[in-house]
Design brief:
CATH superfamily: Protein of unknown function DUF192
Distance between the termini: 41 Å
Largest sheet: 6 strands, mixed
Shape: globular
Helix content: 25-40%
CATH architecture: Sandwich
Order of helices and strands: HEEHEEEHEHH
Strand order of the largest sheet: 1-2-3-6-4-5
CATH topology: Jelly Rolls
Length: about 160
């Protein structure tokens, strides 16, 4: 009887082991002369949510957005409570553009979604971006990051995870 439960338990776990994203939520990435633990955003919902409504980005942490293709990208600070630095990368991990994104005034009580969203600044990749990294305010300057610098990523793994 106990062996039947063990077999059933193992069968129930098999689908979990097959999911690429169930096992990988964070990745350590060397950027400049530091190593960051980046939270992975691999699907549309996660990429849309990003760092919304968070009140800090802890030191040594950040977020890595992984897209299924390389395309011109635009980020904004919708519902973002804190200043954030962003780095757009192409398919090889080469920096396309960097920005210091200040938090914007929150949506007003009587402000429509359309009016709120239309007043937000857009930050463009200026080239086909496959990845974006958001870090704590001041990271770009501290690390001396510039367009054409390279960030080493496990490109094959990340490409296989994006949805």
């Amino acid at each position: 009887m106990a062996s039947r439960f063990l077999i059933l338990y193992c069968l129930l776990l098999i689908p979990l082991g097959c999911s690429k994203t169930s096992q990988l939520e964070f990745m350590k990435v060397p950027i400049g002369n530091e190593v960051f633990t980046l939270e992975l955003q691999l699907d549309v919902q996660g990429r849309m949510r990003g760092l919304m409504n968070r009140d800090e980005v802890p030191k040594g942490k950040g977020m890595l957005f992984v897209f299924p293709d390389a395309s011109e990208r635009s980020f904004w600070m919708k519902n973002c409570l804190i200043n954030i630095d962003i780095i757009f990368l192409d398919s090889r991990g080469t920096i396309l553009s960097v920005y210091e994104m200040p938090a914007e005034m929150p949506q007003g009580i009587n402000e429509s979604d359309m009016n709120y969203e239309s007043r937000l600044t857009h930050y463009w990749s200026y080239g086909p971006a496959r990845f974006a990294i958001e870090l704590r305010e001041g990271s770009i300057e501290r690390l001396g990051l510039r367009p054409n610098d390279q960030i080493t990523l496990d490109l094959d793994l990340l490409r296989s995870l994006a949805r």
